[in-house]
Write a structure and sequence with these properties.
Strand order of the largest sheet: 2-1-7-4-5
Helix content: 25-40%
Structural class: alpha+beta
Strand content: 25-35%
Number of helices: 3
Length: 82
Amino acid sequence: MAKLLFFGRLGDLAGGIERSISLSEPHSVSALIGVLEAGDQLLGSALVDPRIRYALNGAIVDRETLVEDDDELAFLPPVSGG
């Protein structure tokens, strides 16, 4: 199972920081967002915000990167602070 991690306000929208999803074949980050959006349009809309970054197994990736079972995909909102 692939592990999906939602940080900051995305965790609030997702109803928790972590979800697991079974992938029988690789999916692009964009396709996974589509799957999430089908179940929750508000979360899906937030995940396509151009300020959101995606990290696959600890490395920043783009929306076309393929995610496989046993991968960890983190959705990273913009941060602010001082």
